[in-house]
Structure formats: C-alpha cells, structure tokens
C-alpha cells in the first residue's frame, strides 16, 4: 500500500500563495485606511434577493435549495415568502434606522417580480449581479461558454432593468468555477464578493485584467448562523454586535476597518426574527464613527487611497 | 485492523500517583494555535476529499486563508496580552509560504510542533516509508526555519495510520497530541520502546470542533472553556491536571468570536495556581518527574507487581 509519489511532491510550495490569484498580505501590514468624513468603521449591508426554482436541475444544490422530493412546496413557498413578505419587513427596518443596503439580485427574480424590482429600484440603492437563479451555480465543471452566457444574460437583464452599471457581483453560494473571475471581468464587473479571506478589498488577478475582491463575510451571515449553525436569532444579533464592537475598537487604533453583513429576506424577514435584525441596525446606526455605505462607494474610497483606479 | 489504539493500558483516573506541577500549580494550561496551510489544488487522497466543492473550492479555501491574513494577528495580540506563549501546531509548508508568521512567533519564544506538511495532505494510504519521510521532512523543515527541532506531533488534519505514533517516537519526538483518552499526561507504548507521552490536547474544546462540527454559539464556547477550567482546577488540587485550548485563526479570531475567547483567557489567567506553559514543557516535566512512577502504577493496576 502506498500513495502515488505526487502525494509527497509539493510543486506550489513557495513564498506567498499556492496560486496566482492574489498577493499574500497580512491585514495589519497595510497602510492605515481613512474612510470619508473621518469615520473609522465602514459598514456594508447586502441583501440577497433570490429565486429558488421548484424544479432545480443543477447537480450542485446551493444552500436554501429544494431538499424534498418534487414538488417541494414547503421550501419553494418558504423561499418565495422572503420575496413577498420578508423583504418588506427588511426595507421598513432599513428605513427606520437610515441604513442604505445593496441588493444582490438573481436576474430571473427581477424579471419574475417587476413590482419588487421597481420597489428596489425606486430606493436608489446599488444592485449587484447574483447570477440567474439559485439553480445556476458557478462551479468547477461548468462549460465556459455556458458560463459566459449565464454571466452575460444575468448582467444584461439587471443593467436593462436598473439602468445602473452593475459593477459588483456575488456568486450564489460564493462558489466559482476556474473561469468565473475572467468572465466577470470581461463583462465589466469591477468587484466581486466571493472570496472571504480578508476584511478589506484587495486586487484579484484574472487573465482579463484585475478585479477587486470585496469579501462579504459568511461567518456572520444570517443564513449561515441561523440555518446552518442553528443558533438562536438573539445569538446572531449578539454575534454581529460583538463583531461590530471589535472591529470598531480596532479601527480606532489601526485604521479603517469594514464590517459586512449579508442578509436574506427568507431568513431574517420572518416575524420572529425581524426584531433581532432591528436591534443590530439600531446598534449600528447609533454610532457616530460609522460610514454605512454601498459597496461601490466603499471600493471607490478604497481605490482612491491605493492609487488604483476603481 | 486493530480493535484498540494499542498505545496505553486502562488506568483509572482516581488514586494515581500525584502529579506536581512547577511552583505548586494545580493545572498546566496551554494554548495550541493551529497555524495551517491548505492547498487550493492538492492531489486527491483516495480516502478523504480535501474540499466539498470541485476546484476551486472558494468557500473552504478562502476562510482558511483568512486565518493567516487576518486572524493570526488578532489571536497573537490576545495571547500576548494574557501572557500565553502559543504552542503552534504547524503545517511545515507555512515556513515557506508565510515566513513572517514564523518570525513573529519565534520572537515570542513560542513552541512549534509538527502538524505535517500541509493540512490538505492526509496520511491515509501512505506506506510506512512514505509517512516516515513526510514526518521527517516536517521535522527537518521546522528545525531549519525555527532553530529547534519539534518534539510534539499532531497528525495533519488528524489523519493517522496504525504506526503514526510509533514513527514520531522513532524520529526523536517525545509527545503526541493525537489521543484524547485522558485529562493528564500518560505514558504511551510505542513499538521502539522510547519514553514517549501523550499530552492532553482537547477535541471538545478545539474551536473548529466546537464551531464547525458541534455548531456552538461563541458565548457558549467561552462558557464551556470556563466550566472546563473550573472542574480541572478543582481536581488539580488532588493531582495536577492539564487543560489545552486548541485554536484556529480562521475560527476563534473572527470578530464575532474573539470576545468570548478573550473572556475565557482572562478568567483562566486570573487564577493563581495555574502553570501557563507549552506542550513541550508539560511533556518534559512529566517525563522527568512522573513518567516512570506512572508506568509502575499502571502495571500494578493491571495485575502486575
């Protein structure tokens, strides 16, 4: 019994990373950041607006997808609930506390529910690409031409509906194929939120030119904490506030920091959960040291200090 | 296949020879940060997949990279604050990938012990010669980059063979973190007959087991650590105990989790009869003061004379 020799060879063992996507850099080694208005902690709140088809065909099931034999009415309608009811609770909470979120939108959802798209558009908040639906994972093995068409179709739809440039992208499940970054760059995406290896933006190399990677934290995402970890809603709020306080304290002594909060209306929009989101938003909005901003503005402010065009 | 780990005999927790830690401490406390490198494209081990997604496994890889880019500095600052020298469970390849981290830990006189080459290279399926060569290379790499050969071993990703513990003892090691059978050090039987011990690490208090496998809330994790300490500290009045917190910078150092860990560290180091130490120092003390007495007691309680 033995393994092939390849298991004891280490061809990528070298200084820095074992791939060429970005440069190795520790957060504390970078120049201190300054956010607009003398604020030290930037806060990005993102809402993922998602459509989960009842007849999924992708081999890979994204989190939240159907799990029961067809027709999985329970999960289809519970996800749909987020888009009919939950989202309006979230919007009311944002307005109550003066929060300006961004919206990562499955293009199919924007087409299916024009009234929802119009409501979101009227707010003037930033839209991000979020692929076509929660049945179109960008994952290794996806044909490059099919993925290119998927990216184009998603972005064209959102750009036409919103009139926005749609500069940012969040892949469903934060999955990528080996080609995703190149395809996004080629279609005019400036920043992507998929790689959660940092707390600030950094340059991400593609064969079509560099992108920004702006990490959207998974570890304190509502869905991850409540649905995967099965923590109580109150614990989720406590965790977010602990993160906020730690990053705020760090930002006072080490330079600007960024808290990112990923929300799903089918999770936090439930009547028994919404007050915990409100508690988090109240805590954030009560601080005078916070710059609560859309991701595109965060990228612009960050890029201006790095001498790199956004 | 064996039905038993084979490295130790049954030895009841009560009425053992008393363990006396330096300066009359009741409890030896050590923190073991796992400083690891996971590969984006490792060769596929036949027994265990490195990642749940096809290449590139962005979710799994990127959060582990976060531990090195962001998390390490947070935990190191905390351990500095509470006077704890880390005992690092080290992926030896990290010496090459991220020498800055090695340098900072050396400046603090932290201990480095071997955790294999990469945490994406599993022992499963290796021949004995392959495993020996992998472990030896990890020892030599760590010795070269830190100035001191490691004497402790935790198999990469806790992937073992039947001879893992034997091989490490033969290659000059003195302690293993791979066995979870006790709250005190115990002698381990190895085929070469070397004097070799198990130093209690902890699976239950390992942050990755707590957070990823058992999915506990951060505050509850902090409370578990304090409760564990209270009991081991009390029992340590009878005979010295060991408490280890194994950590990972991609788990415990996340901003929503660090506060609970800090509260627990402050609580533990706020007690006077605690020996805040390293895995190596525990092993060396035990080998020098208690090992032989323990062997005799184990033999006695298993029907020997």
Describe this structure in words.
The complex is a heterodimer of chains A (310) and B (305). Chain A has a single domain, classed as Alpha-Beta Barrel (TIM Barrel), CATH 3.20.20. In chain A, 51% of the residues are buried. Chain A is of the alpha/beta class and 310 residues long. The mean pLDDT of chain A is 97. In chain A, strands 1, 2, 3, 4, 5, 6, 7, 8 and 9 form a 9-stranded mixed sheet that branches. The termini of chain A are far apart. The radius of gyration of chain A is 20 Å and the shape is globular. Chain B has one domain: Glycoside hydrolase/deacetylase (TIM Barrel, Alpha-Beta Barrel), CATH 3.20.20.370. In chain B, helix 1 links the parallel strand 1 and strand 2. The chains are: A alpha/beta (310), B alpha/beta (305). At the A-B interface, helix 7 of A face helix 1, helix 4 and helix 8 of B.
Write the layout of secondary structure elements.
The complex is a heterodimer of chains A (310) and B (305).
Chain A: E1 41-49, H1 73-96, E2 102-105, H2 107-112, H3 114-123, E3 127-129, H4 144-162, E4 168-169, H5 180-186, E5 191-192, E6 202-204, E7 211-213, H6 222-228, H7 233-254, E8 257-263, H8 265-268, H9 274-285, E9 290-292, H10 295-306
Parallel strand pairs in A: 1-2, 1-8, 1-9, 2-3, 3-4, 4-5, 5-7
Antiparallel strand pairs in A: 6-7
Chain B: E1 27-35, H1 58-81, E2 87-90, H2 94-97, H3 99-107, E3 111-114, H4 128-146, E4 152-153, H5 164-170, E5 175-176, E6 186-187, E7 197-198, H6 207-213, H7 218-235, E8 241-248, H8 258-269, E9 274-276, H9 279-289, H10 291-301
Parallel strand pairs in B: 1-2, 1-8, 1-9, 2-3, 4-5, 5-7
Antiparallel strand pairs in B: 6-7
